[in-house]
TrEMBL record:
GO molecular function ontology, one term from the record: serine-type endopeptidase activity
Membrane-topology annotation of the record: Multi-pass membrane protein
Pfam families: Rhomboid
Location in or out of the cell: Membrane
Protein name: Rhomboid family intramembrane serine protease
InterPro entries on file: Peptidase_S54_rhomboid_dom, Rhomboid-like_sf, Rhomboid_protease_S54
Keyword annotations of the record: Hydrolase, Membrane, Protease, Transmembrane, Transmembrane helix
Primary localization class, coarse: membrane
Boundaries of every Peptidase S54 rhomboid domain copy: 110-250
Family: Belongs to the peptidase S54 family.
One GO CC term on file: membrane
Species annotation: Xylanimonas protaetiae
Regions that span the bilayer: 74-92, 112-138, 150-170, 182-204, 211-228, 234-251, 263-282
């Protein structure tokens, strides 16, 4: 049986076998139920909606990040990497940990460890990864949409590197009977988390929010780092300083230059971290 329709019957351009007496308010073409999209008045076809979205200028937040709806994808990705890495630490019985942890003694020859240590956690105390992932989830829910994905990624990665640089700068090589060593060895995303804590303070103030709670949280966790053995306060301090600096710069970038500052600030901070690490190694005679 033929499915041809009379020439005067309106059909959907995308689905010619479907009769539609509903027309797009923008282009006037018929649109079947599958191709209809609600508009302020009436409906629009899917093609017009797509065209309008391409022409529309992307909206930005008060601190210059590109406004997006939906889930904090970057935060979930970092959490996923940490969880997978944690499972590999357990499965390999420490080999994965030894390969990617950071200690000043190995960082000079294997600089990627400045970053990779942030994705490892203690396998003897599960609270380590649980607390860090929860803190990352909470802070990421706020910062990622406000800063935008690019700035947020830069903040996370540079805070992680800054934590390792903090360990490097605040420690010195020691001569032992077995030879020179330089520690401590560190793992964990807490330096990155402290960077997010630090960034929240100037960002909240820029948005006229109350930063008292986050300041109190930083103070409490900072004191714990000094009192509880096995916690690297050096990493926390390094991440905090980097995070605060980036957060302040992002929050106070001049209107019209926020995108430029979004690239220049992370680049400048990255260069300073590299220069500080090289200067420390050179001063200790390790270069």
């Amino acid at each position: 049986m033929s499915t041809d329709l009379p020439a005067d019957v309106p059909v959907c351009p995308r689905h010619p076998d479907r009769v539609s007496y509903v027309r797009c308010q923008r282009c006037g073409r018929p649109a079947c139920p599958e191709c209809q999209r609600p508009a302020a008045v009436g409906i629009q076809c899917v093609d017009c909606v797509r065209q309008a979205s391409k022409a529309a200028r992307p909206t930005t937040t008060a601190v210059g990040g590109r406004a997006r709806r939906g889930q904090p994808t970057v935060t979930y990705t970092i959490i996923g990497i940490c969880v997978v890495s944690f499972l590999l630490q357990i499965v390999t019985q420490g080999a994965w940990t030894s390969r990617f942890l950071f200690a000043p003694v190995v960082g000079v020859d294997q600089p990627w460890r400045f970053l990779t240590a942030a994705f490892l956690h203690s396998t003897s105390f599960y609270g380590h990864i649980l607390f860090n992932m929860y803190a990352l989830y909470i802070t990421g829910q706020f910062l990622e949409p406000v800063l935008g994905r690019a700035r947020y990624i830069a903040l996370c990665l540079l805070s992680a590197v800054g934590a390792s640089v903090g360990v490097l700068l605040l420690s010195n090589p020691v001569l032992t009977p077995a030879g020179w060593t330089w520690g401590p060895a560190v793992v964990g995303a807490s330096g990155m988390v402290f960077g997010l804590f630090g960034a929240m303070v100037p960002v909240l103030r820029r948005l006229q929010g109350n930063a008292a709670q986050i300041i109190g949280l930083i103070a409490i966790n900072g004191v714990i780092g000094f009192l509880v053995p096995g916690i690297s306060w050096q990493a926390h301090l390094g991440g905090l300083v980097v995070g605060f600096a980036l957060g302040y710069g992002f929050a106070h970038a001049p209107r019209g230059r926020q995108k430029l500052y979004g690239w220049l600030l992370p680049t400048a901070v990255g260069v300073l971290l590299v220069a500080a690490a090289l200067a420390k190694y050179a001063g200790a005679g390790w270069l």
